[in-house]
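[recover] target loaded
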């Protein structure tokens, strides 16, 4: 059964949204997020490079710092895959992305500083 692309409610028809409010909210979020993708990609690359430097130099604090940078990025910019959005709806998928970002921050603290 199809689900609303924004809120995740089940739909009986072939529509993509359960209401015009959901459709408008979804379109606004997509437009706002479009220009933020470059910041998301840059931050993930920065976190990866920090983590890679930590692996090469055997510094756990740099590995943890790289993971934390990626976690903060996911919390602030919770972009999720289209499959996750289709399964849960955009609203819930963003919430799940933020939760996973917080877990990533906790893992970074554990790896780098504990």
């Amino acid at each position: 059964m199809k689900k609303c692309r924004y809120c995740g409610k089940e739909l009986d028809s072939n529509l993509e949204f359960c209401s015009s409010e959901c459709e408008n909210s979804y379109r606004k979020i997509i437009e706002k997020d479009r220009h933020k993708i470059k910041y998301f990609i840059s931050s993930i690359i920065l976190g990866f490079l920090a983590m890679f430097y930590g692996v090469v130099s055997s510094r756990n604090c740099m590995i943890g710092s790289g993971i934390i940078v990626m976690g903060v990025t996911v919390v602030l910019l919770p972009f999720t895959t289209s499959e996750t959005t289709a399964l849960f709806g955009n609203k819930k998928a963003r919430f799940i992305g933020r939760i996973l970002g917080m877990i990533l921050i906790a893992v970074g603290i554990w790896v780098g500083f504990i």
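[recover] notes: The chain has five helices and no strands.
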